[in-house]
Amino acid sequence: MAREREARVALLLGLICLAPTLLAVERPPGLGDVREVRTWSYAEYTRVVVELTKEVRLPEQGLIRLAADTRAGRPDRLYLDVPGIWVGRRYESGIGVGDGLLDGVRLGQNTLRNTRLVIDLERYGHHRLYTLPSPARIVVDVYGKRGRSRGDSGGRLPTELRRVHTVVVDPGHGGRDPGATGIGGLREKDVNLSIAKKLAARLEDRGFEVVLTRDRDRTLTLEERTAAAESSGGDVFISIHANASRRSRTRGIEIYTLDANHERHSLDVAARENGVPAARLDPLQRALARIQVGELASQSERLASLVHENVIRGIQQRNRSLPDLGLKKGPFYVLFMSSMSSVLVETGFVTNKRDAKLLRSAQFQSELAVQIADGVDRYRQQIEAGPAASARLAKGAAGVRRGDGIR
What we know:
The protein is an alpha/beta fold. It has 11 helices and 16 strands. It has 2 domains: 2-143, Sandwich (Immunoglobulin-like); 159-398, Zn-dependent exopeptidases (Aminopeptidase). It has helices at 2-18, 21-24, 188-205, 222-231, 264-274, 282-291, 294-318, 333-336, 353-360, 362-385, 387-398; strands spanning 32-41, 45-52, 64-66, 77-83, 85-86, 95-96, 102-111, 114-121, 126-132, 137-143, 166-171, 209-212, 236-243, 253-258, 324-330, 341-349. It has a 6-stranded mixed sheet, with helices on both faces. A 5-stranded mixed sheet has the order 5-1-2-10-9. Strands 3-4-8-7-6 form a 5-stranded antiparallel sheet, with no helix packed on it.
C-alpha cells in the first residue's frame, strides 16, 4: 500500500510539474461536467459508466491500452480522452474497484478542454466501448477471467462453440417506467412482466436455465438491466415488450433483431423503447457497425426467424385475425448492449382494442410463452446439431413469411 501511495504522489507531482496551469487556471466556458462514475462487478466482466452533463463524440481510436510501467508503479491500463468535458480535480484520487479484473478508475484534466479516463487493470481479456444519450453516458465493459494469466483472452466462447443452456428473459420497463399505456389504462410494464414469467416457466419445462432481469414491478436502469443479463453468462436474450401506435387500428405482432436500420417505423419503435427521441438515434446507427459482429448478428437472425415462425404459426391457428407484422431490424439499446444472441418481441398493441383484449388474457399470454419457448428450443437444437446439420435444419426457417406490413 505504501509503495502504491508513493506512486500516486509521484504521478500527481509529475502532473503539477508538467502542467501547472491545469490546476490553477479558470475553467474554460462551454464544457460539460462529469456527473457520476458507477461500476458493476460480475464473474467475468466489469462495467464502468461515466455519466456526463452533455453528449460527446469520442475519438475514433477509442480506448487505448498501455502496458504496465513497473518503474513508475503503473499497472496495465486503458485510457480514453473525452473532449469537451471538465473534471478538474474531483476524481484525482481515483475510484477503487479491486474486483480481480479492474484495480480502479481514474479521471483527470488532461488538457483544458479534455478529460482523460484511465482504467487500471488487474487482468484483461477484451473490452467494449460505446455511448448512450438521455442522460449522456460513456459505457466501458471489460471482460476477462478472474484468476487467469494477465493478457489471456478470457472472453466468452462464440455462440456456435458453446451449448445453449441459459436464457435471459427481460420484461421491458417496470417501476417508475410504465412503458406504453393503452386501452382501459393497460400498462405495457404489467403485460411484459406477466408474459415474461410465463415464458420463464415454459423454458424451464424444456430444461433451460432461466434468468429474469426483473421478477416484480421495479425500476431498472438500462445499465442494471443489461449488466444483470451479461453477468448471468446467458446464451440467449429475449426482451419482451408491447407495442403502441397513434393509430388505434394498428395491431399485430412483430419481432426485432439489432441493426442500423433506417426504416421509419423501426426507428419510432426503437425510440419509444429506448426512451429517446427518434432524431437522437442517428449517432447510434454509426456505433452499431462497430459494436455488432457478423457472427453474432447471424445467430440473432436465426433465433428471431425460428421464434417468429413458431409464434405466428401457433397464434394464428387460434386467432387468424391477428396480423403478422413480420421480422424487422432496429437500433434497440437493450439488444446492442448484450453480447449474446438477442431478439425483442413486440407482443401486440396496447393502443388497439382487439390487441389489448388479447394482451389482458392469461390464455393468450400463455400461448405466446409456449410458442416463444418452442422457437428457442428449436434454436438450441440447430446450434447443438453442429454447422452442417444446423444448415439443413435452418432451411425451413429461410422461407418464413416476412409479414404483410399492415399498419
